[in-house]
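Re: the 188-residue chain
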Amino acid sequence: MIGRVHLTGDELTAASSAVAAVAIVGGYLGVRSANRNALKIAREERSSRRKEELDALKRTIYAQCLAALTALAAVSIEVSVSQGRTSPAVQQARIAALRQGLNAIQVAHNAVAELELIAPDLLRELADEALTGANKCTQQDGSAFARGIAKLRVAMRYDLQSISIPSPGELDRMVAIAMPKPSPEPES
């Protein structure tokens, strides 16, 4: 037979207070741990959301830059085609093309400036190279622009995939392999 234990009122109060204190400390530690976990999850979600927003912004700016550079190259070709022709209709077309060219240059420079705000140094250099090629593009020679824009596209793709952008030499090699070779002129 188990003996009887008699607890006084003070002992019962002390025992219930001790149980309550342990419950309070346990509850505090549980809430603290839950708060830490919630804060950690919120930080990770915010970081992930910021990365997604930056990637979306980059995609938009990169696409606008490529479109502006391509439009500038097209206008540059149009201007070069009308050079040397003296008929009034051709001169009017040339003046219109020159106006379009000025607008295209401004749009391209603005697009490259936006790119420079978010892109790594190598992408900025490649955008400047493509801009120069677009400005000098002619119907007879668009190869500088074609190489420049191809290297820029590859670098942009790498950047959007969070992969280290290849060196300029490696980009040159990749583009040289990917670009079609001009077919030789048939001999007469």
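Residues 52-178 form one domain.
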